[in-house]
Amino acid sequence: MTSSASSSLLLLVLLSLTLTLSLCAIPQPGADGVIELTSADYDDTIKDPTHDVMLEIYDPSCNHCQALMPIWSDLGDTFKEEDSVRIARMTIVDASHRKKFRDEGLTVYGVPTIIFFKGSDKTPLYFQGRRTLNAFIEFIEEHADHTIEIPINYASLPEPDNTGRAVTEVVGSTFRKYVKDPNKDVFVNFFAPWCPYSQRLAGTWNELGERLKNDANSNILIAKMDGTANEVPGLHIHAFPTVTLYAAGDNEMYAFKGPRTVDALLEFLQIHSVNRFLDPVENKWSHEVPKNYKDHAVDVEEITDDNFNAVVGDTSKNIAVLYYADWDPHSQELFPAWSRLAAEYASVDVVRVVQMDATKHESDNIEIYPTIMLYPEGRPVADEGVRFKGKEKTLKALKEFINSQSEKSDNDEIVIEHAEKTADAVKEGKPMPKLTAEVISAKREFAALNNKQAAVGQSLNYNLAPDEEKSDL
Questions:
Q1: How far apart are CA 457 and CA 399, in angstroms?
Q2: Are 357 and 318 in contact (CB under 8 A)?
Q3: Number of Cα atoms under 13 Å in the Cβ half of residue 164
Q4: Which among 27, 221, 398, 449 has the fewest CB atoms less than 10 Å away?
Q5: What is the pTM of this model?
Q6: Which tens digit of pLDDT belongs to each residue from 42-63?
Q7: How many CB atoms lie under 10 A from the CB of residue 364?
């Protein structure tokens, strides 16, 4: 054999050995398509940029891990022929594994912990959904670097006969038919048969269905679905019972979080449903304004679409707007405070307090009632304003909001403080506060530069009188 031939043979042997060692560095999947990882081969598998990896961290003695084992094997088998995705698991029992998790900054508070690593970005994504095969597949398809199309067979109970039922039973195969109907508001109770809270709600839910079961309410559907036996693409229920309203039109979802009573459920429907419904017990329509309530704040300027831009677009003032619905109980509760607020600021020419029925007018795309917005003085015309996010809508809280968000000059705080002290003195019958040189200077600049008569944030129209300059300081 010539030296040239010997060199070629040696090169082939070395290449073959290198390839073999390289393959040995990456653990191969088992018969179910799942890779069993160790700390030694963690980096070669998880950090490989050409693959997405779904990793389960488990303890063989854990009951939940044991229950997940056949599902995880099915997941591995599902992606066995999908070269871009690897399904792996790694035990937490080994001390070297736990050290590796700490070194990699992984958050493992319990087992099983399921983490997805994208090929292009190895930032861990923690799976928090229900541990079902379809949920895992959906999660991988949503986050994978490459387009993956794995056929999913969603679980569904047989379609029941809902004829004459006050509560419509929805299953996986009929979810779109019933719940996604754009003509109806659909109120759904997602329950688990074994859950005591679901069992407790069942009677109340049937009572709600019976109460609204009449021909006048054909566009309101009270429904229920066993969330443990039915699956719907993109729907992930994490707790039972989960009560959700799918509003008519675009099927916007509203999660119910209140007390599980018929009255509370009806009030929630009244606030969020698009269609009106008749309550035969009260003998009134849902969106009808109760006679014992005012349908707006008294003595407050009402604006409409016709003058909205002119009012809100006035950048020389601070414009406070209450967007309300006349039938909404929360709006009705706020009306008295809003009336008092308007009266407080009636003499303050830099603040304008107005209101608008947002159900009859479309300006500013208001979707929650009531919504309070402040459009500060001096803002850019395109400014969207500041939304009031306080929990307590009291007169004091509303005034503090306007004061804190309004545009003020450097001298405003001095003028405000003096005016507040004056108001307290008048109220308590005490001597009036002295006018210091600082206060007089602030008032002079305030009036001259801004041409305003009152400070934002207090309701006294406190003018700079000519004789104040001659006061005994």
A1: 6
A2: no
A3: 0
A4: 449
A5: 0.47
A6: 999 999 999 999 999 999 999 9
A7: 16
